[in-house]
UniProtKB/TrEMBL annotation:
Organism: Brassica carinata (Ethiopian mustard)
Keyword Transferase belongs to the record: yes
Family annotation (CDD domains): PRTases_typeI
Main EC class the enzyme belongs to: transferase
Name of the protein: adenine phosphoribosyltransferase
Subunit-structure text: Homodimer.
Enzymatic reactions: AMP + diphosphate = 5-phospho-alpha-D-ribose 1-diphosphate + adenine
UniProt key word Hydrolase: no
Amino acid sequence: MFAVENGLLGDPRLQAISDAIRVIPHFPKTGIMFQDITTLLLDPVAFKHVVDIFVDRYKHMNISLVAGVEARGFIFGPPIALAIGAKFIPLRKPGKLPGRVISEEYELEYGNDRLEMSTEAVKSHERALVIDDLVATGGTLSASINLLERAGAEVVECACVVGLPKFKGHCKLKGKPLYVLVEPTQLDEITF
Ligand SMILES: O=P(O)(O)OC[C@H]1O[C@H](OP(=O)(O)OP(=O)(O)O)[C@H](O)[C@@H]1O
Ligand SMILES: Nc1ncnc2[nH]cnc12
C-alpha cells in the first residue's frame, strides 16, 4: 500500500484494510490485477475500520443522500448511510429498476456499461455522497455524478476504499473531490 493523501497518514487501520484486500492477477481478463474486496468482508475488524473512517469523515457534512454503485457500492454504502442518518439510493445496472429511471453510459477498464437511477429518489439540492469499492478510470463515478446532478442533487464527494492512481480517475469527476483509503503497491499494479 502507498501513502494516500487522505489525512490518515500513519493510521494503522489503513494497513489492516490494505492487508485484507486480495489481489488476483488476470481476473476477469488477462492483464487486470483484480483488487478483491470480498476478503476484506471476511475480516470484521478491517471491514468496520472502513465504515468507521467514512462515517467519521461524513457525519458532520450535512449529507442527506448516499448513492452506492452496483454491485460493490451496495456493500459499503448502506452502513455508512445508516450511521450518518442519510437515505441510500442504489445506482443500478440496466433494466433492474422499476418506475421512471434516468441512465448514463460509461467506459470501464475492461468494457462499457450503463447505470440507472430512479428519478423520484432525489430531491433537488440534496447534498449527496457517492460510494463505491474502487475507482480505476473514473467512468463509473463520473456516470454516477451525472445521474445525481441531472436529478438536481449536489454531489459533495466521491468515496472509495481502493484507488488505482495509474488510471487518473479523479480527472473525470468534474472537479468533485475523491476520497480514497488505500492504493495498491507497485508490485500489485504490474500488468502482464
Ligand atoms: O473507475 P472505473 O474504471 O469506472 O471502474 C470502477 C468500477 O469497476 C468495478 O465495478 P464493475 O463495473 O466491474 O461491476 P461489479 O461491481 O458489478 O463487478 C468497481 O466496483 C467500480 O464500480
Ligand atoms: N483492477 C480492478 N480490480 C477490481 N475491480 C476493478 N474495477 C475496475 N478495475 C478493477
